[in-house]
């Protein structure tokens, strides 16, 4: 079993940058695809990174502003968020799928003021 812990969310002004971290414990996620999602109304896809190829994928709403990356030595995935907008306000979650089971962290709140 794996546990995920997100951190880095806080209140910022529009145009600011934040970096979120998602650190896994219990098992290595270094070869697993991982994703970031956010929830304001429903839970929406934000970004994903491949397991072995490190290909990245983004929602249209964050393309060009957000960057997902990973540090396998730290068992951590990051989400660099630039040019933040009020509509980016949400609780951000990371997810990994292992043995056909989705594991989620507890989320970290990002609030962007106008």
General description of the model:
With 114 residues, the chain is mostly beta strands. The protein contains no helices and eleven strands. The protein is globular. Strands 2, 4, 5, 6, 9, 10 and 11 form a seven-stranded mixed beta sheet that branches. It has a four-stranded antiparallel beta sheet with strand order 1-3-8-7, with no helix packed on it.
| Beta-strand percent range | over 45%
Shape: globular
Number of helices: 0
- What class would the helix/strand composition place it in? mainly beta
SSE pattern: EEEEEEEEEEE
What's the layout of helices and strands?
Layout: E1 3-7, E2 11-13, E3 18-25, E4 34-39, E5 43-49, E6 56-58, E7 66-71, E8 76-81, E9 90-98, E10 101-104, E11 108-113
Parallel strand pairs: 2-11
Antiparallel strand pairs: 1-3, 3-8, 4-5, 4-9, 5-6, 7-8, 9-10, 9-11
List keywords for this structure.
0% helix, 4-stranded antiparallel β-sheet, 114 residues, globular
Short description:
This protein is an all-beta fold and 114 residues long.
């Amino acid at each position: 079993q794996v546990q995920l812990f997100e951190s880095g969310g806080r209140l910022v002004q529009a145009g600011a940058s934040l970096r979120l971290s998602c650190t896994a414990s219990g098992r290595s996620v270094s070869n697993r695809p991982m994703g970031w999602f956010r929830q304001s109304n429903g839970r929406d896809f934000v970004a994903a990174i491949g397991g072995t190829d490190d290909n990245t994928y983004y929602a249209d709403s964050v393309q060009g502003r957000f960057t997902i990356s990973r540090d396998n030595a730290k068992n951590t995935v990051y989400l660099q968020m630039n040019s933040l907008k009020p509509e980016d306000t949400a609780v951000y979650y990371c997810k990994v799928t292992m043995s056909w089971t989705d594991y989620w962290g507890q989320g970290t709140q990002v609030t962007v003021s106008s």
